[in-house]
Design brief:
EC 2.7.13.3, transmembrane helix, rod-shaped, five-stranded mixed beta sheet, transmembrane, Heat Shock Protein 90, alpha+beta, Immunoglobulin-like, six-stranded mixed beta sheet
Length: about 400
């Protein structure tokens, strides 16, 4: 390469390096001013300056006045609104203005930052000025409002349920009282029914001038009446007392019918004799077996009463080898016109009422003791089973 050209290239490289070094070593000019917010107005009211504000939902109109410090001419400004939520900060775009005030409105409830930056003529940026403000939720969207609504609604529903339950319980209580009175009335109807038959027997002894039998009968009858009166004071009676009462009643009936039948009692060994059953339930069934079955039998009959357990039930089975229900009806229709026994009907009503009060399931079944075909002249007899849930 010729020397003149080489000298020119070296001089160019030297100048370029010098210019670059000067540019690199020259320090950047830093901004020596800042933006300052001088006044905050909320819903037309001047507020003392502070770093954060709480703004009501109905008053979410804010106006900011600002300036550059130190004061300079030809300053412009840019600002943005940063929304802070659970999802993070959401800054808006930058807005530019040459004015020294900005109005902000129509913001939804949240926490915001108002960020302001001043710009000089060379577009150098100042340090930002930041103000935080929180727009509160309206009262109908606040947690305490919804909490109060929940508590109030819960209280109303709970109170309504309690009120309905109270009146339901009161209605059931009154219904139970009425039903118990009905049960007591039906229970008292049993005593006159039995007394009527017993007095007829006493009258028969007196007419036949059988003083000894009448005296014996009256003695047993008085003892039985006392037991009836004692048991009628309670809805329940122990099985032991019921057996005692029924045995005495059957003895009186055997006297009345001059030993026309024999009585057989069988209590299973596993029976709890202190278990309680409703009062005055079994006597009408025995009375029915005697008066409508055994009394019409031409030969000496038998009355069987047994107690045994069957699952959750205590079962009382009453059997007779009398003439049977159909033949008894035929005989009664000829000899006792207009008479209708009320014992079983009253007992059935008492059982229905008692089951309603005690939520029990006492039921009975009446059927013929013998199943067809029958032998000629056979006494069919009757079997009654009464099932008591085990109350105790």
């Amino acid at each position: 390469m010729p020397k003149p050209i080489l000298i020119i290239v070296l001089m160019f490289l030297f100048v370029t390096h010098a210019v670059h070094s000067q540019t690199t070593n020259t320090p950047q000019k830093k901004s020596n001013f800042k933006a300052k917010i001088t006044r905050v107005e909320i819903a037309g009211r001047d507020m003392p300056f502070q770093e954060n504000y709480h703004v009501d939902y109905d008053n979410n109109i804010l106006e900011f006045e600002f300036m550059g410090v130190p004061a300079q001419n030809n300053l412009s400004y840019k600002y943005r609104i940063i929304e802070n939520s659970f999802e993070g900060a959401k800054p808006s775009e930058w807005f530019y203005t040459a004015k020294t005030s900005v109005k902000v409105d129509s913001l939804k409830p949240a926490v915001y930052h108002f960020e302001l930056v001043a710009l000089d003529a060379a577009k150098n940026e100042s340090q930002p000025a930041i103000v935080e403000f929180k727009i509160e939720y309206p009262w109908w969207r606040s947690w305490w409002f919804w909490g109060s609504c929940f508590v109030t609604l819960f209280g109303l529903f709970y109170g309504r349920e309690r009120f309905l339950k109270f009146w339901s319980d009161e209605e059931q209580r009154h219904h139970r009282q009425v039903t118990e009175l009905e049960l007591r009335t039906l229970q008292l109807q049993m005593n006159p029914h039995f007394v009527f038959n017993a007095l007829n027997a006493v009258q028969s002894f007196i007419l036949n001038r059988d003083t000894i039998s009448a005296n014996n009968y009256l003695s047993k009858f008085a003892n039985l009446i006392r037991l009836f009166l004692d048991s009628s004071r309670s809805k329940y009676i122990t099985l032991a007392d019921e057996i005692k009462l029924l045995s005495l009643y059957i003895e009186i009936e055997m006297l009345r019918f001059e030993n026309k039948f024999e009585f057989h009692l069988n209590v299973a060994p596993d029976i709890n004799r202190f278990i309680e059953i409703p009062t005055m339930i079994l006597q009408p069934f025995i009375e029915n077996a005697i008066n409508h079955g055994l009394r019409y039998k031409e030969t000496k009959g038998n009355l069987y009463m047994s107690f045994f357990n069957q699952g959750k039930y205590l079962v009382c089975r009453i059997e007779d080898d009398g003439v049977g229900r159909e033949k008894a009806k035929q005989i009664q229709s000829k000899s006792r016109k207009g008479y209708k026994s009320q014992g079983l009907k009253i007992t059935e009503e008492r059982l229905q009422t008692f089951n309603l009060i005690a939520d029990a399931d006492i039921h009975f079944l009446v059927e013929d003791r013998l199943k067809p075909p029958y032998e000629p002249g056979a006494d069919i007899g009757t079997t009654i089973e009464i099932k008591f849930p085990k109350f105790g």
